[in-house]
Amino acid sequence: MAKLQHFKLPDVGEGLTEADIIKWHVQPGDAVEINQTIVEIETAKAVVELPCPYEGVVAELLVEEGQTVDVGVPIIAVDVAPSDTTSVVGGDQDPESYQNLAKPETPAEPAEPAGQGQAAGSAAAPAAGEKRQPVLVGYGVKPGATKRRPRKRGADPAAAERATAERPAAEPAAEAAQSAESAESAAAVAASSVAVEPASTAPGRVAVLAKPPVRKLAKDLGVDLTTLTGSGPQGSITRADVQAAAASPAGTAGVGAPEREPAVRPVAWRPGGEERVAVKGVRKHTAAAMVRSAFTAPHVTEFLQVDVTDMMAAVRRLRSLADFADVKVSPLLLVARALLTAVRRYPMINASWDEPAEEIVVKHYVNLGIAAATDRGLIVPNVKDAHALSLVELATELQRLTEIARAGKAQPADLSGGTITITNVGVFGVDTGTPILTPGEVAILAFGQIRDMPWVHEGEIKVRKVTTLALSFDHRVIDGELGSAALRDIGAMLEDPLRMIAWA
Fold first, then answer.
1. Distance between CA 496 and CA 461 in Å, rounded?
2. How far apart are the C-alpha atoms of 461 and 307, rounded to whole Å?
3. For 281-503, CATH number?
4. 180 Cβ neighbours under 8 A, 6+ residues apart
5. How confident is the model at residue 266 (pLDDT cuts 50, 70, 90)?
6. Catalytic residue list contains 457
7. pLDDT of residue 43
């Protein structure tokens, strides 16, 4: 007899209340497995792929593409055969937390002493002929019912001798099996220390070697690893291989990466009349956030023109170094480094205002936000712990965030927790602007276009590379003196990049 399981729209961990259904990857009648991507949703922060928590056959799609759905509303029905109900993760899951779908249960039976056919502290192995229960990606397997035997200290030698004499004949065999299992585990650990891992070798798939971060990058950029030839050790695929494939004209052709429709379709001019464009997803969230920011934090914006001729020379020098051969080096990289250095000198610009507690929260870490314009609206992914990254690592992260933002692949984790932001308005060919603070932050730096301008240099008028910086800040936290000092120092570091080393 068939059994229907209804998958309810989950809160993906950001406290969101609704999402838009962007694209279904399955249709009624399709067989689905646990962890298989079934739908793309757009939350107020990003486009997210949802995995299926059930194994069975799609009975019905309960909502249509483009529809806005509240968290907790069923979106798909899966027909699960009675014999397969053991593979269902959590039944009709609680929409309060998607992370609870496959939470390990506490064993109800008393713990079995270690050494009885199983290594101490290891997970319980499935019985002969028993199908291993699959679990949702990222949530682990059910722990075994065994516990490590308590270590005895200062044991009586005579008691130990008596225990040896009374040991059952079958126990040495169990210990031998345990030793063999330990040796096998040690071999597995040694094998896992290799930096690359092979892809699944299921029938019809080609095994490839790639590190987990490279696999994630390939997934984010829609690149099929099986189509690439690796340039790394033992033919492994590197980040550079994936980025080169994504940048090529046929970068994602034929790999099944669906093109997403923009949330707000392009509007063409037609004389006469009017039309209405629905405000959804990221654009809806951005509008609410900007209004909240503009009318809760007293904004002040200061401007500074800077001669960045030497900075541009430093950018060209960095591009020629072997360490930066696989990453993009742009002026934004040095602007980011200058801002990170300024945060060390003036920690108050990396803070937040706690209204209920009437406190200023100064953060001694930097999650550096980079504002990115996408066809779905403005999003601000951030580089986690940017203060602790080397210049090469910072360049790599900036490039990764830019790529996933443009591809519409930024996840909620990429977009939450920012502490200070840069917006690069220069890419649009404008000198600067008055940026609005990202809610929860107290400073944002706008970086304008770099132009050839007449400039007084060493007592003479010369053509120099000049940019305009704008720093907006929350005047409740940052007064004019502090804001001016931070902006002045950022400008000084861009004018003479050696100051970044001196002040680091």
1. 19
2. 12
3. 3.30.559.10
4. none
5. low
6. no
7. 75
